[in-house]
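Quick question about two entries, pasted in order.
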Amino acid sequence: MTATPDDTLAAAPECVPARMLNEFVYCPRLAYIEWVQGDFVASYETVDGAYRHRVVDDARGSLPEQVSEDETIHASSVWLSAPDEHLSAKIDLVEGQGGKVTPIDYKRSAPPDGGDGVWDTDRAQLCAQAIVLRANGYECTEGLVYYCSTKQRVTVAFTEQVVAWTRTAVDELRIMATGGEMPPPLLDSAKCVRCSLVGVCLPDEVNLLTGRGQTDEEGIRRLLPARDDALPLYVQQQGARVSKRGEVFEVWADGARRAESRVFETSQIALFGNVQVTTQALATALDHGIPVVFFSSGGWFRGVAGGLGHKNAELRLAQFGVALDEEASLGLARQFVRAKITNSRTILRRNAQTPPRDTLDELGSLARRAESSASAEELLGIEGRAGRIYYGVFTKLFKGRTDGTFVFDFRGRNRRPPLDPVNALLSYAYSLLAKDLAVTAAAVGLDPFVGFYHRPRYGRPALALDLMEEFRPIVADSVVLSLINNGALGGGDFVRRGPAVALTQPGRRRFIAGYEQRLDTLVTHPLFGYRVSYRRIFEVQTRLLARHLTGELAAYPGFTTR
């Protein structure tokens, strides 16, 4: 039996926040992402708006239930609800005389065209506040929007038409929230340009992949920043301590301050081995959504400390459903492996002085076979064959540098522990890459430990390992080759313990610098045509995976570079 609108409304959230009605009128998809999925990203506009809004954030004055006709009302930050109207509102300022009141809403922007009108978004939010005030027994016929940028107060009359329009918007928002289907992105809209959630929504990218949009010769609009403003803080000196002073993380070791990073410029804190973090620093990191990542002293990825996790339960349920579906998981695994083999071929073609044609041809054939593999076992075999071919000619990418008696020799991939310097570098690079993809997956709202190609196993970030497949050659292997061929690392940067080889602390420091430089490198996205950093590409690809898991995209497009 098909559900009716009344049935849907009966199951909808009881009360809609008036602020969210503003977002819904602006863009239904924005409201869904922010309210239903619990995603929010601060921007200059949101931070500046919060600063300008501070004058009405504190609850001052009173709004008595019964007032005399000559009593003056002036109350800020008033929180009321109207369950029968399915609305709640935190009203910036309420002014009035007796039982007749006027809600005043503070906005950082200017009115339309600098005139005396108001934006529809602001009209909806203000009228919702009036409906709540009326439901609580107050007379309310008009309200004011105070535009901070122009210092204008613009009056909004609550006519029957405006009230009916607002109530309809409330019903539509409640139906959307209950439907479990994200609205499509706006099409080539100027609204997207300054939206703080554009990097989450990916409007032009999703429209292109679903056939609603198109590219020109320069690709689609690059609405998200090319690089992140915040960067990781790495701490590997044994016995060091990370503390907090004001809005700064400080690193102390041997009684002296060794480094610092401002909180808002820190994307993650990576701790290697015996490094302490104070309760105050950890609490600040959790409050600001900054992951604290733990490694062994040798660089093995242990795990991540975060807050309560992303609010998007809808996405994780979709992820678990696909992970339990062997055919759906295989479809994703094919894309991960195909992209990995294709990018491995690209690394050989770019870096070998005389790329072996038979090797390139076989890798190209294996990439095509990966796309049509009939089972996970067959796909594993294809990947294994491609790996043996790739690592079998890996030394052709070295420039033959030597450091005294030290030679970067490589006779195949080995690990746990790595038995030569090249394998030590590869293992360290893959550990850092797994860390970054685990952090990205968690930030998007996915569970890093539930994968599709790498099956879940205790302590293994299976999804991060899935996502990193396509980036192993073009990020991790590229860093290793660059540091070897540029002479940035030599024999003194490694230590041998029995058969195992590991990087020294100075060697790890130089490796991390090279790795971070690679993540900041701008690269052209093969589908969208814009140039962004690899660090940003990680997020774009992970969000595209999320869009596929929730059914918005028919397939996940693996990242390959030419």
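Here is the second entry:
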Amino acid sequence: MEMDLRENEVRMNRSPRTAIYSPAPLARTWINSAILALLFSSVETIVRVQSPVFGGSLADSVQLSLLFLFGATLWMALQFPAVFLISVRKNIQNRLSRGLLTVISGLYLYFLFLLISASWCFYINNGIYLSSGILKFALGNSAALQLHFMQTGTSFFLILNGACAILSIAILSALSAELSWPGWMGRAIAILTAIGLVATAFCFLTFSHAFLWGNTHPALAYRYKPESVRLPATDISKLKSELKEKTDDVAYSPSMIRNPHPVFVFMVESMRRDLIHMNPCPVPFMKSLMKDSIFFDKAYATASHSNYADLSVWYSQYPLRGGKSNHYRYRDPWRGASIFNVFRQLGYRTAYISSQNERWGTMINWLHVPEVNYYFDSEDYKGKTWLNKDDSAGLISLIRQKIATAGKVEDSATLRTGEDWIGRQPDLNRVFVGFNLQNTHFSYVIPSGGEEPFQPGELDFPTIYAMWPKNRAPVVRNRYYNAFFNLDKIIRGFTEFLKEKGIWDNCYFIIVGDSGEAFYEHGFANHSGPMYDEEMRTFCLIKPPKGTVNAHVVQKPISHIDIFPALLDLMKLPSPYSFQGISPFSGHRKFIYMHSNALIQQDGIIQWPWKLLLTYYPHRVELFNMENDPLEKHNQYWEKPEKATPLRLQLIQWRSRQLSYYNSPELYKNYFPPKKCE
């Protein structure tokens, strides 16, 4: 009894400064959450200081302080679902229910940290956060992306997921901890929360829409929607009068070709046009074909990423159809005719043979179609699929055990598949084969026994698509060259097969890069990024049958959607009305249009030598003179308004016509897409 009285007396006489604050369970959880929020925001502030965006001026320091408070407040809000579930769990006695709430809280925190950390990794490397469009595309292709990461960045993939899992468990434990805090802690947290709310309100009131939602924090960037382009009103009735009705289309028949020529099309991953100017040249055989071919010196992809660029070639259509990422469905009323459809009607046997899994971006729905007699992609392959020898640990073992299918087939195996199919055809002069070759996709496949003349070229450092170390660009570029050097030999071997079959001299042989490849020339790596020439200007040639057309170089710019109209023109055949491309041999293209919606949201237009890029996130407009500034280092948008303004208006008008067509069921169900926008 005396001991209890003494303890009570000591408690009563203790100084308030040393009093221990034991708040209610909910309040304790909120204090824990606030401390964690301050910690997270501090780490993010350190990252911002290290980024090139931070200049170190007084204005930058003030903005950095605001973003620190803003970030802490945002992290408090982001933790709210977990805090709420933990608080509810503390009042539940049933162990099963408590366990279920714990699992839900942990999963929420895991995915929260995974999304935020992935976006910060991208920001550190490229200066922008990941967007909602990228997230939606990733979710729609989650299985393929996992395989891609296992092939090109197993270590990073495992470390990131493992770190997020460990962090979510640690944070869950910290939020659940029954801690007692000094009395001043609660008051300090309350004051900081009030200051943070004021700073947050100030940010919302003063920061521009684009900066607030696109540049302050990954959580907001995922929800960022670029400010809508002020599109000029499109007169639907006038647009309708310019379109051809679908009741009338070009009819093809075998009798239209008296002397048939086989056609072989090679869509080569990431093939820059400037490969031919290197010394030594990594593609000596393909370069040698130029002397017997029509070479398009200024051939531009329609997009910087495959799910848009590839189908634009096969269907001769622009990829811009709506504000969101394209998802292809077989019964899309605007699908139109593919080049396979044309040649099938001409009495040809058609094949599409790809080294990749065409489920990527749902492209399979427009490629595995009835007009393709024989379809093959990596899911159909029964042999060994390619594995990155540098990434042999962890989940990659699932592929070796045949539990998961590797995303790509090595190109020599793909061409052997093509040779087998071609050899079985009754009429070798009536075959049309489209190949999609992928050895040159990052991280660049070197076949077994392949040569590696460009050194150093060993990727003996952590690599992941678009986020490998900038200071290792020369090494990565050499690996890229080595992949092309070996692919060049593989394609040469295929031409030997055609010569053995006696059809080389009689065939059309087309090679086109689906896009280019960047090595941080403008801050981005690989492709899917901004539409500078390293990603958009590709190798492109058509070798015609011997004695039919003189070899020459086409200097005027063309779009990739013009390639098959050019082929049909050479064969004295009309193009389907659904084709938006124009043959460079009989028509005139005044403007080249481009559109990307992957790691960047961007439209582009070329009226040689001028090129204008309109970027929606992060917002900017750029104008380059491609003759005087081929490396696109000098933005002349503000210096040359007399050039920039007409091009920008022309680009916006094209965008308006495209979107008006695809957003009007009356138009896309009854009319072919707009062919010109001059």
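Reply: Residues 5-23, 385-406 have pLDDT under 50 and may be disordered. The longest helix spans residues 58-89. Hope that helps.
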